[in-house]
Amino acid sequence: MRPIIEARGLRFRYDDGTAALNGVDFCLYPGETVALFGPNGSGKTTFVLHLNGLLTGEGEIEVCGLTLEKRNIPEIRRKIGIVFQDSDSQLFMPTVLEDVAFGLLNLGCDRVSALSRAQNALETVGMAQAGSRAPYHLSAGEKKRVAIAGIVAMEPEVLVLDEPTANLDPPGQRSLADLIAHLPHAKIIVTHDIAFAQALCQRAAFFRDGLIVAQGTVDQIVSQFNWVFTPEQTKLRG
Cα–chain-centroid distance for residue 234? Predict the structure, then answer.
């Protein structure tokens, strides 16, 4: 089976000289859900921001058969939807429906079609009745669902979710896991939440010092690295 995403030899250094990626190789296959584990600053978010050209370093990336280069970036950004950790960074329009439709309108979709697709996306995430509400009136869990709806409305092939359980209570985390499990897209989930990854992911990759140093099932990676999660911090034991 051909990967839907393939990254080879990714390297990236920030302007201050910090080496964030040191030769990352990674594949994602259709229908697969993969967790990215690792300490803070190990390169996980820097890596996913390379997948649709938000950051550009050295190496090669192919997305749905398209090489990541300037001429292909608009199409690749339609293939990969990123849901950021802070939902407020994606919600800024007066109403929920307008927020979800924003990306479609920005791509030139006519308003009637954009609003229809946005409403369908809200139904997909269980927020069908929220279209006329102001985003700032929503709970953290509702904001996360609306942010996901805004990406789903674009009909991507891959969803990337960066710390999706941040600021959610345990019931909210379980509800979100159930939603994500029922979305048909291939998914990459950057997380420190082991239980969340166990519920959703067929595979995990562990980042350390800008490299993927191991891949396997979630349980294999947790066991290999004695990876633990607390709400206050993440750390490696031993």
Answer: 19
176, 144 contact by CB (below 8 A)? yes
Question: What is each CA distance from 154 to 1, 80, 114, in whole angstroms?
Answer: 25, 9, 9
SS3 assignment, position 173: helix
pLDDT band (50, 70, 90) for residue 228: low
Which DSSP letter does residue 72 get? G
CA angle 32, 149, 205 (to 5 degrees): 30
| Contact yes or no for 151/82 (Cβ under 8 A) | yes
Q: Is 0.85 surpassed by the pTM of this model?
A: yes
Query: Hey, is 199 helix, strand or coil?
Result: helix
CA distance 78 to 106: 12
Residue with tokens 């009909």: 155
For residues 28 and 129, give the distance between their C-alpha atoms in angstroms, rounded to a whole number. 34
Strand partners, 58: 11
List pLDDT tens digits, range 113-124.
999 999 999 999
What separation in angstroms does the CA of 160 have from each of 15, 81, 132, 149, 225?
25, 6, 27, 13, 24
